[in-house]
């Protein structure tokens, strides 16, 4: 089964349309989706990357996947032969993310990595439903980042 067999997320499709150089006019090769509340964060991330990369760098930059995982934004990408290896470890009540890059990364790779890391850190305090700040991770089973209002709404649904 290829990724073209998966339904596409309209929010990701909008990023592909807005930043064709970065997405090479196509959806990421691995099925991706983006919580509504993080669309502005993702849009700003790709605007920053688009401004950072010249045409040569953009031609080898690849967005592999965008998604929510463990209440955090994940953006998997590569720059030509330079790639990151990401490992998430779940412990009792917390998650740890390990991000290992190439042994001798270029300055551009490090700038991209810092930009992606900043967006992911912002997502950790941004409600993934409505986009409001002062959100925090919560949940048993599924971990989500919600503001107080969206958390209360979710709790009401759970009480039914």
Description:
It is a single chain. This protein has 160 residues and is α+β, with helices and mostly antiparallel strands. The chain has one domain (3-124). The protein is 39% helix and 24% strand.
Relevant terms:
160 residues; alpha+beta; two-stranded antiparallel sheet; 39% helix; globular
Low-confidence stretches: none
Q: If strands are numbered along the chain, what order do they take across the biggest sheet?
A: 1-2-3
Mean pLDDT: 88
User: What's the helix-strand series?
Assistant: HHHHEEEEEHEEH
Helix content: 25-40%
Would you count the extended β strands for me? 7
Q: Biggest sheet, in brief?
A: 3 strands, antiparallel
List the quaternary state of the chains: single chain
Count the DSSP helices: 6
Q: Radius of gyration from the CA trace? A: 16 Å
TL;DR of this structure?
By secondary structure, the protein is of the alpha+beta class. It contains 6 helices and 7 strands; from the N terminus they run H-H-H-H-E-E-E-E-E-H-E-E-H.
Topology:
Elements: H1 10-18, H2 20-23, H3 39-52, H4 55-60, E1 61-69, E2 72-79, E3 82-83, E4 85-91, E5 94-100, H5 107-123, E6 136-138, E7 144-146, H6 148-159
Antiparallel strand pairs: 1-2, 2-3, 4-5, 6-7
Helix pairs in contact: 3-5
């Amino acid at each position: 089964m290829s990724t073209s067999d998966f339904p596409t997320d309209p929010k990701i499709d909008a990023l592909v349309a807005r930043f064709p150089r970065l997405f090479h006019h196509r959806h990421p090769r691995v099925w991706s989706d983006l919580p509504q509340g993080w669309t502005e964060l993702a849009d700003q991330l790709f605007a920053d990357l688009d401004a950072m990369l010249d045409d040569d760098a953009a031609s080898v930059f690849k967005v592999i996947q965008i998604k929510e995982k463990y209440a955090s934004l994940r953006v998997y990408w590569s720059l030509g032969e330079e790639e990151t290896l990401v490992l998430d470890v779940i412990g009792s009540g917390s998650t740890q993310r390990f991000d290992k890059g190439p042994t001798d990364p270029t300055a551009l790779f490090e700038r991209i990595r810092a930009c992606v890391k900043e967006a992911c850190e912002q997502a950790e305090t941004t409600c993934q439903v409505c986009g409001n700040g002062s959100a925090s991770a919560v949940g048993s089973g599924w971990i989500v980042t919600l503001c107080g209002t969206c958390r209360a709404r979710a709790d009401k649904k759970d009480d039914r």
